[in-house]
């Protein structure tokens, strides 16, 4: 993967998505590697109109360099792209507003939800604001805060949290 990035060439990967039972061969243009709890290849599928996608490195069974050049825009900046994400997940950007309850204020003051977050005090609570995509990952992270945080906006994040709660409840 690193060699494909350095040479600006496409990569043929055998990738098994979460919904597939066996790896499927795909040709991608690698644009970067993103790390977090897991490592991801940020790449654009060749021949598809879709935009960049994250491929979990641990789900890539094989990778081989292709002779086809990868066309990565000169102004591409992985750090800038990641700024609009929650973790490594990129999606349509939303204006996020989280209200931190008094029991979690101390922890929230030590936590960075997003690189461009704004924090304001509201009585004995905090209001955290930022703009980002990746609502599913944010909703899953907010589980770790228990009742310490209330989602004020957007409605799409509230809906995502309800879906994740229902899914978790179905496991009981």
TrEMBL record:
- Residue ranges occupied by any WCX domain in the UniProt entry: 93-166
User: By its UniProt entry, which InterPro entries does this protein fall under?
Assistant: CBASS_pafABC_assoc_protein, WCX_dom, WYL_dom
Q: Which Pfam families match?
A: WCX, WYL
Query: Which UniProt keywords are listed?
Result: Plasmid
Record domain WYL: where: 2-63
Q: Which domain of life is it from?
A: Bacteria
Name of protein: WYL domain-containing protein
Q: What is the lineage of its organism?
A: Bacteria, Pseudomonadati, Pseudomonadota, Alphaproteobacteria, Sphingomonadales
């Amino acid at each position: 993967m690193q060699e494909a990035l350095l040479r600006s060439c496409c990569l043929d990967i055998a990738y098994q998505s979460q919904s597939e039972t066996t790896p499927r061969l795909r040709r991608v243009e690698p644009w970067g590697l993103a790390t977090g709890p897991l490592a991801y290849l940020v790449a654009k599928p060749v021949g598809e109109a879709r935009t960049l996608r994250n491929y979990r490195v641990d789900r890539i069974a094989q990778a081989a360099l292709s002779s086809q050049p990868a066309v990565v825009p000169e102004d591409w900046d992985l750090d800038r792209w990641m700024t609009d994400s929650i973790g490594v997940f990129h999606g349509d950007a939303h204006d996020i507003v989280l209200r931190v309850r008094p029991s979690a204020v101390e922890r929230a003051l030590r936590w960075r939800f997003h690189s461009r977050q704004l924090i304001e005090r509201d009585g004995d609570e905090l209001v955290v604001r930022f703009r980002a995509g990746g609502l599913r990952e944010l909703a899953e992270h907010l589980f770790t805060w228990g009742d310490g945080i209330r989602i004020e906006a957007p409605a799409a994040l509230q809906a995502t949290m309800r879906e994740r709660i229902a899914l978790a409840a179905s496991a009981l």
